[in-house]
Design brief:
The protein has 508 residues and is mainly α. The protein has helices at residues 7-28, 34-39, 46-57, 60-73, 78-102, 108-111, 117-151, 155-202, 208-219, 233-247, 251-254, 263-294, 297-303, 310-359, 366-390, 396-410, 412-420, 426-446, 448-454, 468-485, 489-493, 495-504.
Amino acid sequence: MNAEPNVTAILFFVVFVALTLVITWWAARRTKTTEEFFAAGRSISGPQNGFALAGDYMSAASFLGIAGLVSLSGFDGLIYSTGWLVGWPVVLVLIAEPLRNLGKYTFADVVAYRLKQTPVRVAAALGTLAVVAFYLIAQMVGAGNLIRLMFGLSYETAVVIVGVVMLAYVLFGGMLATTWVQIVKAGLLLGGAALLSVLVLAQFNFNPAALFHAAAQKYGAAVLAPGAQVANPWEAVSLGMALMFGTAGLPHLLMRFYTVPDAKAARQSVFWATGLIGFFYLMTFILGFGAMVLVGKDAIIAVDKGGNMAAPLLAQALGGTGLLGFIAAVAFATILAVVAGLTLSGAAAMSHDLWVSVVRKGHADHKEQLLVARVATIGLGILAIVLGLGFKGQNVAFMVALAFALAASGNFPALVLATFWKRASTAGMVSSMVVGTVTALVFIYGSATIQVDVLGRTEFWFPLKNPALVTIPLSFAVGIIVSLLTPEPAAQQAFEMKQRKMILGTMD
């Protein structure tokens, strides 16, 4: 597939960017305080936040990455869809209500609630930034390939364009603009995926079994059996743990629970998001097998060795350049919205957790907080561009799985222990976050993912591609042991009050 400019794609792209810039202009007029910048003034309803959560979650990894993995490896790509979906009941049961009732802007508010603020917030902010960085890699790689397809520009130019447009949303519109961009994007993505799925199934008399049979005939029965992508059972368990528990530790998703007015709306938003995301992931399976049969593995790899362009290529095969243009623009909207959400959560960690709470000890006015947040946003935008350039050619679903491993190891254990365990101490939670994040990073670096796929070496020293199987239990164990060794009577005494606020949302 050549990289000639696609007029339809450019038209859809321009319309989408124009629409979102209007939303940003509207939101900027309503974004004057820190609460409006980070939490949209807590004015988003449950169903609206459900669509926005779905929009945040259905990233380039979901649309481009999973479809690509299924198209190249068959059945095994489904482990990503399943893993990412089953994380939502964990969020609904354990996380949504306590987070909304206890926090202000970031998950560090909850972990630090009855503990010493400075060390907890520093550890939480560094963990957040590590997750955001890995997640940004995947989005920027997907964006670079898409813009290259649509405009005929170089990959490097495309990555810079995405970074600049995203910065406009976040800098001026804050969370309100980001939320409505997510809602628009979720609608577009669900509509685009549904249209493609119907067109694929129409080729097989609306019989999914006929589609799978055609794939088996073309590439052998192995494409319908597990083992092509994750052959080692320990790898499967480790990846599943990362995807499931990582959902409950993703800073840009946790931040969304502060945009709703109360805990009921937080629960509602998870319910809506789970339904929308489940419906979407069912369709990615159809898209992946459709691309495998109708486009072919060789054609997919020829355009992008990570398989990320399977869905756009499928659109071209089914509906020509017009449909390709629409799907490519939808995928671009997907990436832009997720990058905006990620950047906002990183800016919140740097401004709210580090600057306001640690450096200024809570003594910073709204003007100063907004200034710091916007400076942090610019820094993260530059980081996103640099990371996108450095990781050219990686499969985006796989890169996001590593971000989930970081979130599951560094954020999730401390969030659970600090919220539900009376004896959690400051030293215990800091140790849990630091050990979880650092060991996950070290093991990812020592695995085949980095040593072989990125650095081109032949040897690696950590056997699992995803470290969650080791790092999640380790993070829990460190948090519990260190807390028992460093008891904190004041924190234990405050536990009852914290529980009451967590359940009732009030101190009364």
